[in-house]
UniProtKB/TrEMBL annotation:
One of its GO terms (biological process) is DNA recombination. GO terms for molecular function: 3'-5' DNA helicase activity; ATP binding; ATP hydrolysis activity; DNA binding. Residues 285-447 form the Helicase ATP-binding domain. This is ATP-dependent DNA helicase RecG. It comes from the Bacteria. CDD domains: DEXHc_RecG (cd17992), RecG_wedge_OBF (cd04488). The keyword DNA repair applies. InterPro entries: ATP-dep_DNA_helicase_RecG (IPR004609), DEAD/DEAH_box_helicase_dom (IPR011545), Helicase_ATP-bd (IPR014001), Helicase_C-like (IPR001650), NA-bd_OB-fold (IPR012340), P-loop_NTPase (IPR027417), RecG/Mfd (IPR047112), RecG_dom3_C (IPR045562). SMART domains: DEXDc, HELICc. Keywords: ATP-binding, DNA damage, DNA recombination, DNA repair, DNA-binding, Helicase, Hydrolase, Isomerase, Nucleotide-binding. It comes from Salegentibacter agarivorans. Plays a critical role in recombination and DNA repair. Helps process Holliday junction intermediates to mature products by catalyzing branch migration. Has replication fork regression activity, unwinds stalled or blocked replication forks to make a HJ that can be resolved. Has a DNA unwinding activity characteristic of a DNA helicase with 3'-5' polarity.
Amino acid sequence: MNANILQTPIDYLKGVGPNRADLLRKELGIHTYQDLLNLFPNRYLDKTRFYKINELQRNSAEVQVVGKITHIRSVEQKRGKRLVADFIDDTGKMELVWFRGQKWIRENLKINTPYVIFGKTNWFNGLFSMPHPEMEPVEEYKKQLRTAMQPIYPSTEKLAKSGITNRVINKLMQQLFIETKGKFYDTLSEEITSELKLIPKAEAVFNIHFPQSQELLAKAQFRLKFEELFYIQLQLLIKNMLQKQKIKGFVFEEIGQNFSEFYKNHLPFELTGAQKRVIKEIRADLGSGAQMNRLLQGDVGSGKTIVALMSMFIALDNGFQACLMAPTEILAIQHYNGLVELCENLDTSIYLLTGSSKTKARREIHEKLENGEIDILIGTHALLEDKVKFKNLGLAVIDEQHRFGVAQRAKLWRKNQVPPHILVMTATPIPRTLAMSLYGDLDISVIDELPPGRKPIKTVHRYDSNRLKVFAFIKDEIKKGRQVYIVYPLIQESEKMDYKDLMDGYESIAREFPDKQISIVHGQMKSDAKDYEMERFVRGETQIMVATTVIEVGVNVPNASVMIIESAERFGLSQLHQLRGRVGRGAEQSFCILMTGHKLSNDSKTRLETMTATNDGFEIAEVDLKLRGPGDIMGTQQSGVLNLKIADIVKDNDILKLARHHAMKILKEDSNLSMEKNKVLRFTYAQVAKHKNIWNYIS
């Protein structure tokens, strides 16, 4: 048999033809037999048999159970009520749940009457439940014809209108198995399959499309999800390994004068355990001889800058220069002022280069940089200009890396014969599952403790009807000498509307606080006007800053203790968290007040509840991931890596960790996959690397 049969264009499959082929290509991206095979069902209708409650599996299938209702009750929830019925058979108990149509349902349900129920099960708090089940008394059911277990495939309106129904896809799948005789190479080693008790590949592929039982379907899903995630992790880990082998880095063996003097005599506060751990990880990288590529994650205010500075001291102690690149001028200036203050009693020369630097200052910087008089250069994109030449750049720190494109980062690499070590910092917490999938080729360090003495920000949700109380609270805080941010949403589609919102807000604040100085900052202002207003607020000349989200990443004003976010329901979770991080920079108690109207969607409620419940950025990021999905969070440029066929990195978090664990274990023992027992992994990996996501092979 032709080993490449799966690469056959879909047009040649019996029952397809040119018109259907065209539609399948455009609507579902199915170009080959391979693509059709990888079109996995969304769900299954199982009317082949009745399940006992103790036989139910935690998978995404729909099932049929016979039993009777013993008790019905209404349960209060945050909004309205839900109707819950206890449903039993002779093996156990489950719950039936209704959120709509409760009055009619309650009137028609019969206690202790045998029913056939059909629907999708959820597992929660140790109990299965079935929301809005299809129900029929057993007597009625016996009169109906029964259908078999049936896969339901993804579809589109256009396909349905053109007659390519679920039944047609099902028939095409049957034809595909006839033509390929359903024989597939096993793509995982015997060691993995026996250790994890995985079913063979051919059996998994067959049962995902034509499940013979609930149990086999669960095993098929697990096997295929594991395999998909395993090869993604293998690719990322090998990329990381090759990078370390191929790209040599400077060896920083010295921990000398700069580092020791600062650590012993000038550190403004005791480092947290997390900061010490991260510095240790960075030191190990810098001394390894391979180029460091490390992502440093830490919540707003967790002390990433100190870690960056101490890493730069290691470069200086080994005779190299360092640079720090920030996405905006305000942030670059803030880093510069912060580092100059930390180093004021040290002999460290720190310079600032931004788009606004005057020609004379630029000339001086260019000259001193090339002859090695500058130790640390801080700046914006201006650092990437060809004229900016270092004598010997050893470490480049990039702040808020998602603001810089790949090409811009690559320019930094070329600032030296041997690429400098790279430390990427972000205050946007990335959920661990996503970090493992997107940045699996970077080493990741996390600062998960706040410095001592920082008080957690108190966050509350208030409705517009409480506005007068909120104004009274602001007045009290200003009396204590504090400053206040009031932020309005910015939605690209409607800059005019946002501007109006902001100006209306500004006018009502000015009326309410006639004796106070107010700064205003928005996206339509020129940069110098924006900077001027920001500076007034930083210096304490204005007490209130009315702004759009331009202040999301930016100024550090320890005296600002209140953040009011207007129309908070219009913001995403990560944005709300970033904005809240603008306060809480000083020793005083800080507050974040989320203002909304009364009409809120369920997602908005979840976001507001999450914000008031926790200050932990990683917890917030996990909720955000569940609400929005990986593609939205990472933006289109990076979500391509997660073009998954069957796995879901949110729901299959445990399988992802398992896949990464096994990939690491194998590469530790056999980094080139050259052992006989890993032969099948080497072959499959070569195919995957070539075709990106092909992992079915005909035997």
